[in-house]
Amino acid sequence: MSLFTFGFLFNQTHMRFIGIFACLYSISFSSICQNIELVNDDFTDSTKYIDLTKKLIWGNNSGIRSAFRLVNKQDQSGLTYKAITQSDSARKHSGYQLPNSLKASLVYDYRFQDFDRNNDSLTIEFDVLWDVLVSGGNQGRIVVALMHDYPDSIQDNTITDSVNAEAPFGRPAYSFRILNRIPQGANNYANMMYGGGKDSLGEFEKFSSGPNRWWLPGFISGPGGIAPESSAPEYPLSGVVRWLNYTTASVTRWKHYTWKINPERLEVKVRTSGLPAGQDTLLMFMVVPKPGPENEMLAKMQTGHSLNQPLDSLPILYNWFEKVNGVRFIMAGKNPTYFANISVKGSSGGLVSNKGKLEHQIVKLFPNPAKDKIHVSVKDSETGSQYEIVNSKGQTLMNGNIDRNSNEIKLSGLHQGLYLIRVVENSGRIRQQKFLIE
User: Fold this and answer.
1) Which helix (DSSP H) or strand (DSSP E) does residue 295 occupy?
2) Using CA atoms, how far apart are residues 256 and 280, in angstroms rounded to an integer?
């Protein structure tokens, strides 16, 4: 990788100069550079994160205003961190059903360089403290979403003005949530899932009631649209893995969470902040096989989760997300929560150039819905591009060559349902579009 490329990464991802210099030094000796900092935020610099509460006008404000404030927050042991939390006014308008609400947008993001997960891991770490534990509801939950297809920019008023646009807030690849519920054993305290919504690519929700329609970029349902706290079977029989053993949220001590995103296994661990990493407790894990023969994927899930009986099929809308480029931190609203010390690290081999960027709505096809064939064209496509048709389980069912002009693709053998056509160019650029067969 060239010095120019690393200079570009520095501008795009807030990497520290010392980390980049160390990586360049190690690469010159053909060793592997680990733990490149994609995000490192102790909230002393408010320009490091993307504040989605500034993407709409909420409450009684006459203009754009942040719903977050920075505080020095001390727990009962005396440990103090500089933290981000909701403002008092934001908690009053933290709903999503009124035009002046924050519309589930108590969200701050970090966008980083595209990261290829095929052989490399990401580690996301942060500290959290709650003001109150509750006996029901989700008013103090937190959600962390690893994003893919994060847009280059999110415009002001996108919440309402772009409600018909496709994924203007990016798409969740994997996410987990922690609830501040008590008593022990009464409810689900934590869960983790892939994707979300009714799209195999993952989606955030929209609110719709009468004339009111807007995005809810802080809401993610389970795959297929299920409620993550529902009584659905445990992953991989459903799309959600749950933690029920004890409440991990705390009002007395800062808690340190570590989310390890390995190529085929996700893990969430927790410890009391300030303690060494060796004292972590494993909360949840999820085996996430890469695309391949379905019987091999099922065997990995069965063995990894110690199931007594073989699996019949993959979980609903199962998808393995190859590239990610952002992380989203979500606060539910009324109950104060505090985040501190945000860190995202990855091995250098996973960093890819913008040539691997996923681009939507550049593949044009008709008819849609289709029956027995589609006509496809790709704007500015490179010579030698390949196409793949993928089903909702992430399985490639057809492939072949494609050019920038009109291509007729026969759909013989494909059943009714939602599919994705993906065009992969020699440079690594990926373009895709959904279509329906009826």
Assistant:
1) helix 294-304
2) 9
Q: Are strands 255-261 and 265-272 parallel, antiparallel or unpaired?
A: antiparallel
Burial, 238: exposed, middle or buried (Cβ in 10 Å; 0-12, 13-18, 19+)? Answer: buried
In this structure, the number of other CB atoms found within 10 A of the CB of residue 250 comes to 18
Question: CA–CA separation, 113 vs 41, rounded Å?
Answer: 16
Q: For residue 173, is it left (φ>0), alpha (ψ between -120 and 50) or beta?
A: alpha
| pLDDT for the residue 232 | 86
| Same domain for 346 and 365 | no
66, β-bridge pairs? none
Residue 8 lies in a domain: no
The tokens for 16 are 């520290």
Return the minimum-mean-pLDDT range out of 171-175, 191-195, 338-342, 430-434: 430-434
Dump pLDDT digits (tens) for 394-431: 678 898 888 777 789 999 889 888 888 888 776 666 77
244-252 mean pLDDT: 92
Question: 413, 417, 407, 402: which is closest to 370 by C-alpha?
Answer: 417
Q: State whether 140 and 201 are in the same domain.
A: yes
Q: pLDDT tens, 280-292?
A: 999 999 999 999 9
Domain that holds residue 224: 34-355
Mean pLDDT score, 159-170: 81
For residues 117 and 199, membership in a common domain is answered with yes
Give one DSSP letter per residue of 372-405, joined into a string.
Answer: SEEEEEETTPPTTEEEEEE-TTS-EEEEEEE-SS
Decide which of 331, 355, 379 is a domain's last residue.
355
Listed residue (105, 89, 108) closest to 51, CA to CA:
108
Boundary (domain end) residue, out of 355, 390, 415? 355
- Identify whether residues 124 and 162 lie together within a single domain: yes
Contacts of 4 (CB under 8 A, 6+ apart): none
Whether residues 168 and 315 share a domain: the answer is yes
Asked if 126 and 341 touch (Cβ cutoff 8 Å), the reply is yes
Q: Are residues 285 and 396 in the same domain?
A: no
Quick one: 52 and 197 in the same domain? yes
How deeply is 276 buried, as exposed, middle or buried, from its count of CB atoms within 10 A (0-12, 13-18, 19+)? exposed
Query: How large is the average pLDDT for residues 374-403?
Result: 80
- Look at residue 18 and tell me if it is in a domain: no
Structure tokens at 100: 């002046």
